[in-house]
Amino acid sequence: MVNDIIEEMKVDMLKSVNSMKQALIKVRTGRASIGIMDGVMVDYYGTPTPMNQLATLAVPEPRLITIQPWDKGALSGIEKAIMKSELGLTPTNDGKIIRVPIPPLNEERRRELVKMVKKMAEDFRIEIRNHRRGANSILKDLEKDKEINKDDLKSSQDKVQEITDGYIKQIDDVLSEKEKEIMEV
């Protein structure tokens, strides 16, 4: 029973870490990444469609994203969608392929992005701690209902804290990696 509670908590914490990784992919750095295009929706014959369902995206150079639509009719729609997005990117279209140069970030913008990702990381740390609180609450209820004794409660809570510390460390590692990526010139 205790092991089930701990395993469920681990699954929830892992989901939180993976959610953070997904959220950070969308944060633009000075380096090209097709992940920044994930939120861009293209008006394709009147239907909002994710760009990756209309074209092949590639990163042939560190500061360039290429977008090759499968349907040439989607070229202008993709170009307009990138211009409308809040990414601050300017695509060029040669009739077959769209090239999106990724300009380097200025120092002020880098610092803003670092602040933003630190705030995101703190939100995910809070999420992890909430999972810990939930597991500890269930364990205390089990002890109150005499399903486990005080020693089992204490050892279980220690294990929960140890697991929590591990997931918090994972979040900190992901954060420091993203900070390095943002600050590199």
Please describe what this structure looks like.
With 185 residues, this protein is an alpha+beta fold. The chain has helices at 2-25, 75-84, 107-144, 150-183, and strands at 41-44, 47-50, 55-61, 64-69, 92-93, 98-101. A 4-stranded antiparallel β-sheet has the order 3-4-6-5, with helices on one face. It is elongated, with a radius of gyration of 22 Å. The termini are far apart. The model has no long low-confidence stretch (mean pLDDT 89).
Largest sheet: 4 strands, antiparallel
Shape: elongated
The helix fraction, in percent, is: 55-70%
Using only C-alpha atoms, the radius of gyration works out to 22 Å
Multimer state: single chain
| Helix-strand pattern | HEEEEHEEHH
- Model regions low in confidence, pLDDT < 50 over at least 5 residues: none
**Helix count?**
4
Number of strands: 6
Query: Strand percentage, roughly?
Result: 5-15%
Termini distance? 51 Å
Structural class: alpha+beta
Write the topology of this structure.
Blueprint: H1 2-25, E1 41-44, E2 47-50, E3 55-61, E4 64-69, H2 75-84, E5 92-93, E6 98-101, H3 107-144, H4 150-183
Antiparallel strand pairs: 1-2, 3-4, 4-6, 5-6
